[in-house]
Specification:
heterodimer, A: 504 residues, mainly alpha, B: 339 residues, Formate dehydrogenase/DMSO reductase fold, 2 strands, transmembrane helix (chain A), transmembrane (chain A)
């Protein structure tokens, strides 16, 4: 088999597995910071500590998997893509090293205090550690998205000759560090990644909470968690719409071939429509079964319904053509899920406001499973970005009609690695990741079944009368109590605590 | 000092940090199966519980810094030693999995499987690191362009395997001494025996490696002629090693631990001196084909940018590493949050 194809498959597989975890921990990190802050502000309310402990355990599991699968990525740049490493080390390497120094030490150090420090440090120190872990995750995403964005829209560098033992070859060398950091796509993409992470974290919280609500367990905890998750998800989904629009404009400007692939645009068009569905056929060079809003793409990109949008007829000679079908479908899947999220979170907010949210069992069931869509949307976004950049690993700039400064994926491979080596490592990764995935599901399920630890000194009977006055939330929960299906009495007795083995 | 040399030193510091810190982690893993029962195993596991993850970051950052500062050497080593690095990856993944998941379920078979996984992956990772150091000392086949020109088996020689065994003995001893600081009672008493055994094995390997290096790798000692002050490090290294049995005999584990940390840092330093000015030494025509601090480096601009990053980052890193170690000081107490 072809070493290029195998290496691409290996990279795609390992990074997509890795990318299940970082967005989740970034999103959950925000949840933990919120819970920690509330625990400081309202020490009399034990539910924040209960929630913080529960979500911290879930966070720890996901964080560990993110770390071990992340080391793989760093190794692969050197093992499989050595020519790429030689070409971009001067630029890309410094962002990666900055991630190590500024983010990883911060995260891993304070993670210890976050996970193991409950009985060892005070509430304030613990909150500080929570904050630092969350900030570490954000720092990490900043550097890695900057590095990736530089590959998409490279600036601040020059191609220079480098001599080794009398042989000359070319590589990218940095000329302007801050131009590299604030490359044209970096900020847009960073915001998009963060919002995607918040959405995933929020939907993850809502999924588990909705499940508890449907099963009638840990009701107070589940209601509060669900409400918090819903607010975060609603705001983030709406903001993601704006972010996605801004990013698409940037792609149209800096990576026109990627945009053409996202929209299945084989021919340049005045007044291009925005397709909702379609089936790109690169052989026939047409978008089959297209359902589109006329003129909308031109409006979105240029604020002008008659503006011209370039297709592959004008672009292919300079940029080549990525696998259009994959890019088109991944992009449309992501956008479609985004639209669904906006509609469903707004609907849920409406029901929350009406106070009937927790009666809508169908909607709760939807939220139990919607987290899978959130994972899919994050992965699809990654595919759009990375497959859309092909056949380039570093995108070229067009100077006098010819691509300059880029690096083709086919030229980025390790010179000395053979196909059977890559195949062997893919098989090994396949096996070990399958094991990791099964363990992840088993432990996650175990933790969810275990649920939050009961609050010490409270028996899970009916709630006392002296609750604070009915707010939005109480109005909603009141309805649940009257519905008869979801009552606190279903709460299992304190028999599910892990034995002496413990559980974090 | 020019920027290239500065980055060679910084890489050395990262490597020494990794070897000293993850060294005792790996050592605890190698000793893990010698514990008597589940509680003892959990005490040993939790002695590194909150910190092993942070210790491994030293390796990740070493890799990132090498990528940035010496991309040629990074690309050559990682792609050339493909299979070896994949094995390192798998042992690191498996190790993390074993630590993370071992205590999550009560089942005996589950725990046994991960106990063995923790031991085997710690052993394999240590052995591979040692073999890599041995192969780097001996030199590897490189072509004119600085690309690796051999297979997996070219890394394996009697010398590199012996260095691998040295690494295993050294880390096992280091881990046993670390555990003396974190345990109490009967377990601690028995760990003294482990520390002595570890020291004995280490001493044998150390002497063999020293003799073999002097006899078969003349390049390794060539720099001592040019830089006589390096003999001071050799002397300090020998004194640190000699202080380990002395401190063990006097039941001063903290001093023994400080000595074994110093000994490991000394080894990394000697490794650097032996390589200098090469990063990857070619076994064929070492003068013409090796990757050095100069021909394998990034541009001056990047080395400078990175130096600024390191200067800002280093005090922060040291501060919170210190804080975390301080938070979890003292003997291990199992609580509901333990592994």
């Amino acid at each position: 088999m072809d070493v290029l194809l195998l290496s691409r498959l290996q990279f795609a597989f390992t990074i997509m597995f890795h990318y299940l975890f970082p967005p989740l921990t970034i999103g959950l990190g925000m949840v933990l910071v919120y819970l920690g802050a509330m625990r400081l502000r309202r020490p009399e309310d034990p539910i924040y500590e209960q929630a913080a402990r529960f979500w911290t355990r879930i966070f720890g599991l996901n964080f560990a998997l993110g770390v071990v699968t992340g080391i793989v990525m760093e190794f692969e740049f050197g093992t499989n893509w050595a020519a790429y490493s030689r070409y971009v080390g001067d630029v890309f390497g410094s962002a990666l090293a900055a991630e190590g120094i500024f983010a990883f030490f911060l995260e891993s150090g304070f993670l210890a205090v976050l996970l193991f420090g409950w009985e060892r440090v005070g509430v304030k120190t613990h909150f500080f550690a929570t904050l630092m872990v969350a900030v570490g995750g954000i720092f990490s995403s900043i550097w890695i998205v900057i590095a990736n964005s530089w590959q998409q829209t490279p600036v601040g560098f020059e191609i220079r000759d480098h001599v080794i033992n009398g042989q000359t070859f070319q590589r990218a060398e940095i000329t302007d560090f801050w131009a590299m950091v604030f490359n044209p796509s970096a900020v847009d993409r960073l915001v998009h990644v963060w919002l995607g992470s918040f959405i995933l974290g929020a939907f993850f919280v809502m999924s588990i909470s909705a499940w508890y609500l449907l099963k009638g367990r840990h009701l107070e905890f589940a209601r509060r968690s669900f409400t918090g998750g819903l607010l975060l998800a609603t705001v983030s989904s709406l903001a993601q719409l704006a972010s996605g629009h801004s990013q698409a404009k940037g792609v149209g400007e800096h990576q026109p071939a990627k945009l053409a692939a996202m929209e299945g645009l084989y021919e340049s068009k005045r007044g291009a429509g925005l397709s909702l569905f379609g089936w790109p056929d690169s052989q026939a060079r047409e978008l089959r079964f297209a359902v589109e809003i006329p003129g909308m793409l031109s409006i979105l990109l240029h604020n002008d319904p008659d503006a011209e949008v370039r297709g592959f007829d004008a672009l292919e000679a300079d940029y080549g053509m990525p696998p259009v079908w994959i890019v088109f479908q991944a992009y449309h899947l992501m956008v479609g899920i985004g639209m669904l999220f906006i509609a469903s979170t707004l609907l849920a907010c409406y029901y929350l406001w009406r106070g009937t949210l927790y009666e809508k069992r169908w909607l709760l069931w939807y939220f139990v499973f919607a987290v899978l869509l959130a994972f899919v949307a994050n992965e699809a976004g990654w595919m759009t970005a990375e497959v859309g950049r092909q056949p380039w690993v570093v995108y070229p700039t067009i100077v006098d009609g010819s691509p300059t400064g880029g690096l083709r994926t086919s030229d980025a491979l390790s010179e000395v690695v053979r196909a059977e080596q890559v195949l062997a490592s893919i098989i090994m990764f396949g096996l070990i990741y399958a094991l990791l995935f099964v363990l992840w599901i088993v432990i996650l399920n175990h933790k969810i079944q275990h649920g939050p630890d009961p609050i010490p000194g409270t028996d899970p009977g009916p709630r006392p009368e002296s609750e604070p006055g009915p707010g939005l939330l109480e109005a909603a929960t009141g309805r649940v109590d009257h519905s008869g299906t979801l009552t606190e009495a279903n709460e299992p007795p304190d028999g599910r605590r892990a034995g002496p083995t413990g559980d974090r | 000092m020019d920027l290239h040399l500065l980055w060679f030193v910084i890489l050395g510091v990262f490597l020494a940090g990794y070897a000293v810190l993850d060294g005792f982690d790996l050592g605890v893993g190698i000793l893990h199966l010698t514990a008597r029962d589940d509680t003892e195993r959990r005490v040993m596991l939790n002695s590194i519980g909150p910190i092993w993850d942070g210790n491994e970051v030293w390796l990740v950052t070493f890799g990132g810094a090498m990528f940035a500062a010496f991309p040629e050497a990074y690309a050559t080593v990682f792609s050339g030693f493909y299979l070896a690095f994949m094995l390192v990856l798998f042992s690191l993944i498996f190790r993390a999995v074993s630590i993370e998941f071992r205590s999550k379920l009560g089942s005996k078979a589950w725990r046994r499987a991960f106990d063995f996984g923790f031991f085997a992956s710690s052993l394999l990772a240590t052995l591979l690191f040692g073999v890599a150091v041995g192969a780097a000392m001996a030199g590897v086949p490189l072509d004119e362009r600085g690309l690796y020109d051999g297979g997996f088996l070219d890394l394996i020689s009697p010398y590199s395997v012996l260095v691998g065994m040295l690494a295993v003995a050294l880390f096992a001893m280091h881990g046993a001494i670390y555990l003396l600081l974190k345990t109490e009672g009967d377990l601690r008493h028995r760990l003294y025996n482990r520390a002595w055994t570890g020291f004995g094995c280490f001493l044998v390997c150390y002497l063999l490696v020293t003799i073999m290096t002097l006899a078969t790798i003349p390049r390794a000692t060539a720099n001592f002629g040019a830089y006589p002050w390096a003999w001071l490090v050799v002397l300090a290294n020998v004194l640190a090693i000699a202080n380990i049995p002395r401190s063990l005999f006097l039941h001063r584990p903290a001093r023994a631990f400080a000595s074994s940390c110093a000994a490991i840092a000394g080894f990394v330093f000697l490794f650097g001196i032996a390589l200098f000015p090469n990063l990857v030494t070619s076994s064929v025509e070492p003068e013409a084909r090796s990757l050095t601090l100069y021909n394998a480096a990034s541009s001056e601009q990047t080395l400078w940018n990175m130096a600024v990053v390191a200067a800002i980052g280093a005090p922060l890193v040291l501060t919170y590493t210190g804080l975390v170690y301080w938070t979890f000081r003292g003997a291990v107490r199992l609580d509901p949050h333990s592994y």
